[in-house]
Amino acid sequence: MSDLNNDIYYTIDSPCEGIFRDKGSKFIAYAFPFNQEDKLKDIIAHCKSLHPKARHHCWAYRLSPDREVYRINDDGEPSGTAGRPILNELLSSNLTDIMVVVVRYFGGTLLGVPGLINAYKNATQDCILNADIVEKTIDEVFEIFFQYPNMNDVMRLIKDYDWKIIEQQFEIDCRIRVAIRQSEVKFLKDRFKDLIDIKYSPIEG
């Protein structure tokens, strides 16, 4: 799954599950929409409450539209055999703003390093196959300022280009806050450049 526009990214919009079994061991994968690192402990606690007798609760997450923020944890498995294979599946699926926890029940037979890597990979892969993957855009937020007589012009632009209205205030002096795809920001600047009665301002953060 690849994107042609650099202001598009892919994530999931609801939790999902997957499973893989090998030599008596069971690997249950849970994927969650995830865009706040302070939710990490809550998700891990939730999975442990579902499976208090499981031996391992290994995980990986990937954050932000630029996909550069990530963490992994092997939770007692040999280094590199759990968190990294989970993360690699997120990378190969081109997903971000997602966390996957794989819960392992030990079946009595050691799987070895290759076996563990394969198990955590396949559990995550099965989970992603069951996911509802959604396309999202990287947006920039602007405030547009105008007089009431200019409202039709502004609203027509918003409708034609499907800009998302975040907030609006209609009085004599009107203000609309909109989210605009990064790839369309140049159009906004070009379109409003010569309009004396319509101003805009970017909103940081």
TrEMBL record:
Stretches assigned to the Impact N-terminal domain: 23-128
Pfam families reported in the protein's UniProt record: Impact_N
A biological process term (GO) from this entry: regulation of translational initiation
SUPFAM superfamilies in alphabetical order: EF-G C-terminal domain-like (SSF54980), Ribosomal protein S5 domain 2-like (SSF54211)
A cellular-component GO term for this protein: cytoplasm
Protein family according to the UniProt entry: Belongs to the IMPACT family.
Protein name from the UniProt record: YigZ family protein
Species for this entry: Candidatus Sphingobacterium stercoripullorum
